[in-house]
Write a structure and sequence with these properties.
- The longest helix has 18 residues.
- Helix 1 runs antiparallel to helix 2.
- This protein has a domain of 45 residues.
- Helix content is 40%, strand content 0%.
- The protein contains 2 helices and no strands.
- The protein is mainly alpha-helical.
Length: 80
C-alpha cells in the first residue's frame, strides 16, 4: 500500500529542499537572481510550502526583548 503524504510532510520536504538549495548557493528568486539572505530563503521556503498545501500560519509574532511593563506609554524604556 502506498502511503498518502500529509500536508505537514509535504511542507517539511519543501522547506528542507529550499533551505538545502540556499546552503548550496543554487536558490534563485522569482526574478532569477541568487538568494543571498537566509531570511529571504526562509520566506521562499514557507511560500512554496503553503502553495503545496501545508498549513502554515501567515505570520508569527515576534517577541520583544523587554516586557511590556518596562515601557512607558510612548514606548521608551524606563530605567530603574
Amino acid at each position: 500500500m502506498a502511503e498518502k503524504s500529509s500536508a505537514g510532510s509535504t511542507g517539511k520536504s519543501k522547506v528542507y529542499r529550499v533551505m538545502k538549495e540556499h546552503k548550496e548557493g543554487t536558490l534563485t528568486s522569482g526574478s532569477g537572481k541568487k538568494v543571498k539572505s537566509r531570511k529571504q530563503a526562509v520566506a521562499i521556503a514557507l511560500s512554496e510550502a503553503r502553495k503545496s498545501g501545508a498549513k502554515i500560519s501567515k505570520t508569527h509574532q515576534k517577541q520583544g526583548s523587554f516586557p511590556d511593563h518596562w515601557r512607558s506609554r510612548k514606548g521608551q524604556l524606563i530605567r530603574g
